[in-house]
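fyi for ur records
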Amino acid sequence: MKKIDAYIRPEKLEEMKAQLDSLHLNGLSINQVMGCGKQKGWKEYVRGTEVDYNFLPKIKLEIVVMDDQVENVVNKICDIAYTGDVGDGKIFISEVLDAIRIRTRERGIDAVK
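which gave:
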C-alpha cells in the first residue's frame, strides 16, 4: 500500500473530488493548509507598510491506495492540478506499513477496502 499526499491549489478542489470519485477510491482526506515553495508568497502594502505573506493557502489530499493504483491516481491529480504556473503543487508518495480498521480490527488491505 502507498500513501499519496498531494498539495494543490484550493480552486482545483471540486474538480479534483469529482475526478478522483470516478476512480472509485476507498477514501480521501482533505485538509486546508498553508505553505510556501518557490513562489515564496506575496507582498502587500498595509497602511504604507510592506507586509510579506510567506504562506499561501493550499489543499492537502491524503489517499491510501493499492500499489497498482498509484500511477493512475498520480496521473489524474497531475492532469487536474496543472496550470503551468508556479504554485501548482507537489505530490509525495510513501509506503504504508499497515492499516487497521478500528471497528472490526481488520488489518492491511482488508482495512483499506
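The radius of gyration is 17 Å. thats all i got for now
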